[in-house]
């Protein structure tokens, strides 16, 4: 998570700085870019990296502490740490189950981002990167018995694919996609069906990247996004595929 972590701690825009810090760090924690138990940079250093005042950072960290994302430890080895049991998404005051329209909109965005990231990864990934992707996929399978750990590992896999594209904008966008998907998946009952989708989809994506097949990588990423969409729609909203208008064809 080198480049994704670097982007998560990059300077922010000036407006709404507290909210931006909360969102940026919350998304990074929720997608595993900042790992459970990881120590955040010292406050002065982190504030400088984010381009905000130390007081702004302290206010944001207080919100994240209250939300269960970070904890503060005192003493020489103290500081702010990502909680091992941090939630997968920032709390929403009026969180409601996702609508078919919201799922469709997110999936359309995911098709564009994940599809292109996978294609570029196929063109640019080294053997070492492919090895890392296989390890990330294995971590997803190993966490299948724990819904929270599974979601975190799944998000990490997709961000790792984006990192393999070597596009900073695609990495940032994939992190955003996974954070929003995490908000929606709070309403999911458990990882059993998602595990089946992930095992098939991830293996196909990695195989295409390893083969250097850009078109196949894009197709498999789009197919995986649609499979996730259909699962959520079917289980969360009770809607069949025929009831969800506007589903685009796979780019095969």
UniProtKB/TrEMBL annotation:
What SUPFAM superfamilies does the entry give? GntR ligand-binding domain-like, Winged helix' DNA-binding domain
Q: Where is this region: Disordered?
A: 78-98
Q: Does the keyword Lipid biosynthesis feature in the UniProt annotation?
A: no
- Fetch the SMART domains from UniProt: FCD, HTH_GNTR
State any single GO MF term: DNA-binding transcription factor activity
Q: Which InterPro entries match?
A: GntR_C, TF_FadR/GntR_C, Tscrpt_reg_HTH_GntR, WH-like_DNA-bd_sf, WH_DNA-bd_sf
Q: Please give one Pfam family short name.
A: GntR
Domain (HTH gntR-type) spans 15-85
Keywords for the protein's UniProt record, in alphabetical order: DNA-binding, Transcription, Transcription regulation
Query: What is the recorded name of this protein?
Result: Transcriptional regulator
Organism the protein comes from? Gaiella occulta
